[in-house]
Structures are given as structure tokens and as C-alpha cells.
Design goal:
The protein is α/β, with parallel strands linked by helices and 217 residues long. The chain contains nine helices and four strands; from the N terminus they run αααβαβαβαβααα. 15% of the residues are buried.
Length: 217
């Protein structure tokens, strides 16, 4: 198949025989048939040091979730399962109230908590060699510094609290400790990005009138 006609890979099977443990419902067009080499290589990764503990802890936390456990509580359970001590928070300064609650919660549970706000140092864009973005409100966010400071404190797990789109990527790249996100910034939906997919008016805004409501489900 030529590059011009090759379709983008998608994993949108409605039968979902893979997780229902029903091999008979796995369609012939399943991506697993295309990426068998990648699947074979990746399954071996889970037994490696530094991977197995992270994965096992995730499985334990998921098994304990009865559908009534919010993500923040899952984060606490996860850190406890890994027997971690030092937790880092890389936060947007607009979320100082949320950060304060999280710090109190994790401290109460016995963790040593380190926090770094995105505006730390007040370094402007010109000093960082990108003067063309000087006029943007987010140009003073110092995400790499957030990661470097938490690296220096040797945190064992870092959580992102509402960092801007793109800044969260840089933080994850520069953080030496594993990174997870507790709050995804979305000013429209109360920091719940998926809400834009569930609400009909937001769907209409995103997709226009050519796609029906049922087709997007």
C-alpha cells in the first residue's frame, strides 16, 4: 500500500474483544495484526527494573477502585503502594488554592512534599532567547526550572497541577522522576477536558454541523 493510500492507524473497535477476553470478537482488521512485532517487544519491557514496580502499583490501585475513588485519592494510594516518600508538585500559579489543598492532603498522609510554581524566578522570554513570545501571558512560565528544582530535591514522583498545554510536555521531558497529571488545565470546563466531548454545545463548536451527535459518541 502506498503512502498516499495508507490509512492512519486507529484503535476504535466497538467489539473490544481484547479486554473482554473474547478472542472470537477480535476483528481481522485489528491493529494487533499489523503491529505484532511491536506487541512482542513491548510485553518484555514490563519485567524490567523501574517498570515492573510502576506497573504493578497501577494494577493494585485500579483493582481497589470501586468506581467511587477520585483520581486524587488514586494518586495517594499509588504513592503509598510504591512506598514513596518525596512527592513533587509542578503547579500553575493560578491554582494556588488547589495546590494548598493537595499539599495538606499529602502531608497529612506522611509524604514529604515539594512544590514549584510556574512563575518561579520571573525570567522573561528575552532572557531565554525567545523574545518573539515576550508579549504572551504564558511567556514567563518557567517549566524547565520547575523540573530542575524538583530534580535537585530528588523527588520520587512528580505531579502536574494545571500546567499550560506544551509546558506540561517540557516538564515531563526534563523531570528525572516519573510524572503524572492530577489536574489538566481547561478554563472552560472546570479542568475536565473530556467534558467538551460530552456536552452537545461544545461538540457543535468543535466538530461543526456535519457530524451528528450520535456519530461522535
Amino acid at each position: 500500500m502506498s503512502m498516499a493510500t495508507k490509512k492512519t492507524s486507529r484503535c476504535l473497535c466497538v467489539q473490544q474483544g481484547c479486554w473482554r477476553d473474547d478472542r472470537g470478537k477480535i476483528p481481522t482488521y485489528c491493529e494487533a495484526n499489523i503491529y505484532s512485532d511491536e506487541l512482542d517487544r513491548s510485553v518484555k519491557e514490563y519485567s524490567k527494573k523501574g517498570v515492573v514496580d510502576i506497573y504493578k502499583a497501577a494494577c493494585v490501585v485500579r483493582a481497589h477502585n470501586d468506581g467511587m475513588t477520585p483520581r486524587i485519592e488514586e494518586a495517594l494510594l499509588y504513592a503509598k503502594e510504591l512506598k514513596l516518600r518525596k512527592i513533587g508538585f509542578a503547579a500553575c500559579v493560578s491554582m494556588v488554592s488547589e495546590l494548598d489543598l493537595l499539599v495538606r492532603l499529602f502531608t497529612k498522609e506522611g509524604f514529604k512534599v515539594y512544590t514549584v510554581g510556574c512563575q518561579i524566578g520571573g525570567a522573561d522570554a528575552t532572557k531565554r532567547g525567545v523574545p518573539e513570545v515576550q508579549g504572551y501571558s504564558a511567556s514567563t512560565c518557567h517549566t524547565i526550572a520547575q523540573a530542575e528544582i524538583l530534580n535537585k530535591e530528588k523527588t520520587e514522583l512528580n505531579f502536574i497541577i494545571g500546567l499550560c498545554m506544551g509546558h506540561d510536555i517540557l516538564f515531563s521531558q526534563y523531570s528525572q522522576a516519573p510524572v503524572s497529571t492530577l489536574i489538566v488545565k481547561d478554563r472552560v470546563t472546570g479542568h475536565n477536558p473530556a467534558a467538551a466531548l460530552y456536552g452537545w454545545h461544545r461538540r457543535k463548536h468543535l466538530f461543526g454541523f456535519t457530524i451528528s451527535d450520535t456519530e461522535i459518541v
